[in-house]
């Protein structure tokens, strides 16, 4: 990948030179080594690992590694014979003894025609290891000892054995919030409808299909300190479910009449005053018009402390980004469009400030 490609994808400057006149006026290589939460070397070549293991620093990458006091993750990629060489094994052992995390490479065919360990691990493996290292020790952080129950994804209300009523929710925002709260030390229980997403690291999950199942799963996970209703729960379900597949009769006037009944209101049942009401109850409002007005009405109607509202008339449901309003009894904040993970971490950090303050501040 070229520096231009990396810069375009990341939206940040790509550093290449150890002694750049502009950057070094502020000791750029030292700043690089200290400003990150985690230093990832991918791919980690045999040469760079040898430099790092022996404290050499003759280019920007090796200098940043020697100067950093942050966790380091090495992601090896090299020829199988290089990986199995005694010198590389010695360097890997030294790096691990120094506290560096060195992943095991993947096994498979290589560009040189050989087969064995040495392939760069697949991106999902690397991402999982990064998430694990960033999460830190479970149960530590500003939300340690705090229990959170989160609903996410859609529900499915079956019409017959093959059809159901549902919506376009992907579950991404709810899963991201569960991950963010877990990173801050919370004990997170995720109640999720059907999605294609992996359960976030450090999160206990219950998988459900229908709104009734989600309602029962939420009740089973209470009491909690925080409840966040992110799921797009179906308001209605069919009164009856056909035992066999519904068939067209083939007539020109062929019609199907559905009789629907209301599902339980999960958010309202948690938010209304009850003995085990969570200290902080947060609902989501997915609207297509008058977002703020509907959000304020929902805040009161559902008994919430906060409402996160967004306009879903575009590509939000199923998309990677979100633009939300945080509505509380004290006022409203408009957050700019950002990735759903960034929205989740901003919300988690705001929640952490509530639990660092007296209990009376939850609704503000």
Description:
A hairpin with a 5-residue loop joins strand 4 (106-109) and strand 5 (115-119). With 364 residues, the chain is α/β, with parallel strands linked by helices. The chain has 13 helices and 19 strands. Helix 3 crosses helix 5, helix 4 packs across helix 7 (86-97) and helix 9 (172-183) packs across helix 13 (340-355). The strands form six sheets. An eight-stranded mixed sheet has the order 10-9-6-11-14-15-17-18, sandwiched between helices. Strands 1-2-3 form a three-stranded parallel sheet, with helices on one face. Strands 4-5 form a two-stranded antiparallel ribbon. It has two domains: 12-133, Flavin prenyltransferase-like (Rossmann fold), CATH 3.40.50; 138-361, 3-Layer(aba) Sandwich (Rossmann fold).
What structural class do helix, strand and pairing data support?
Answer: alpha/beta
The CATH architecture category of the largest domain equals 3-Layer(aba) Sandwich
Low-confidence stretches: none
- Give the number of domains: 2
CATH class of the largest domain: Alpha Beta
Strand content: 15-25%
- The value of Rg in angstroms is 25 Å
**Main sheet summary:** 8 strands, mixed
CATH topology of the largest domain: Rossmann fold
Q: How far apart, in Å, are the first and last alpha carbons?
A: 47 Å
Rounded mean pLDDT score: 88
Walk across the major sheet and give the strand order: 10-9-6-11-14-15-17-18
Oligomer: single chain
Query: CATH homologous superfamily of the largest domain?
Result: CoaB-like
What gross morphology would you assign?
Answer: globular
Helix content: 25-40%
Number of helices: 13
Number of strands: 19
